[in-house]
Design a protein that fits this description.
The longest helix has 55 residues. The protein is built from eleven helices and two strands. Helices cover 76% and strands 1% of the residues. The N and C termini lie far apart (63 Å). The protein is mostly helical. It has a two-stranded antiparallel ribbon with strand order 1-2.
């Protein structure tokens, strides 16, 4: 006859397994913490390397560098304001054009599109996101720029020439072309992420609005868009981050002239474009250091924009949560 195990014997048998699981949890936690801290270390190392390489230009030009418009490698006089201006204007112009298209496509695919059309349209939108940027640049040079020069810019000039934005000769290449190419490139990101956000909205939100007598559009506007507002803002800012760092497509259509012009028809320059064009041509240490400082400024602009975006998403998300409660 086998005696029943006492509580003390059971505790002796269970204790090694508990300790083993505890060691595994600690090991897993430590591994994940190491990976997370590795990303922090990578960012800090990137900033440190850029700062060291840009230090001669930082010492030479100081705080004047981001606010100076002169870019003269021969005289070794450098200022980054035209590149900052071109980066911000082209990116926000792209957002102005892409946000209505991207959000509209997301709403249509998530709420209104027939089931037989959703998969093909989603596939085509995702295919746009997979096209290399140099292909967009070639399309911009051979298709978009001639079309803008021959048709769009003359029409805008004749209709809205009294505005500074639409004055000047029609070159085809310029800020308007760069904004259009960037808009085409970021629409897939906004539409795809926005669609996933809207699909994640619980169905009881829609059912409650319909039960109260709301129309299809009112249900979408009140119950769906308002619920997913923070996610949609995140999708838009993801597109903005993509636009800020785009290099080849913008370089091929923006005109690459380091000047500040109010007109959208005029050529411009971006921080990413000047790095792509002139980094291999830097003939002096100060010239190279100035280019690295532009890279550091691009990193800073990206961090600032993403930080503001995160604050905006948090504030909107907190407002939506309060409204739901």
């Amino acid at each position: 006859m086998i005696d029943a195990a006492t509580p003390g014997d059971a505790a002796v048998l269970i204790a090694p397994r508990v300790r083993s699981r505890a060691r595994g949890d600690r090991l897993f936690w430590g591994l994940l913490r190491t990976v997370a801290l590795g990303f922090v270390a990578l960012v800090l190392a990137l900033v440190a390397a850029l700062t060291v390489e840009a230090f001669p230009a930082i010492v030479r030009f100081g705080w004047r560098f981001p606010f100076t418009t002169t870019w003269d490698p021969v005289a070794e006089s450098f200022g980054a304001l035209p590149f900052i201006y071109g980066t911000l204007v082209s990116s926000f112009l792209a957002l102005l054009l892409a946000v209505p298209l991207g959000i509209g496509a997301a709403v249509y695919l998530a709420e209104l599109a027939p089931a037989r059309l959703r998969s093909p349209i989603v596939f085509l939108i995702e295919l746009l996101a997979a096209i290399p940027s140099v292909v967009y640049g070639l399309w911009g040079i051979f298709v978009l720029a001639p079309w803008l020069r021959s048709w769009v810019e003359p029409a805008l000039g004749s209709a809205f020439g009294f505005l500074p934005l639409f004055k000047g000769p029609a070159y085809g290449v310029g800020m308007l072309a760069a904004g259009l190419v960037l808009a085409v490139m970021i629409v897939p990101f906004i539409a795809t992420v926005g669609r996933e956000v809207l699909l994640a909205v619980p169905n009881h939100q829609r059912e409650a609005a319909l039960a109260l007598g709301a129309t299809r559009w009112e249900t979408t506007r009140i119950a769906v868009l308002r619920y997913g507002r923070s996610g949609l803002i995140g999708a838009v800012l993801l597109g903005l981050g993509r636009a800020l760092g785009e290099t080849m497509a913008v370089t091929m259509v923006i005109g690459n002239r380091p000047e500040i012009a109010i007109s959208l028809f005029a050529p411009g320059y971006t921080m990413a474009s000047v790095l792509a064009n002139e980094f291999t041509e830097a003939t002096s240490d100060l010239y190279l250091s100035a280019l690295v400082e532009i890279g550091l400024l691009l990193f800073a602009v990206t961090v600032i924009v993403n930080a503001l975006a995160r604050l905006l998403v948090w504030s909107v998300g907190g407002t939506v949560k309060t409204v739901r409660e």
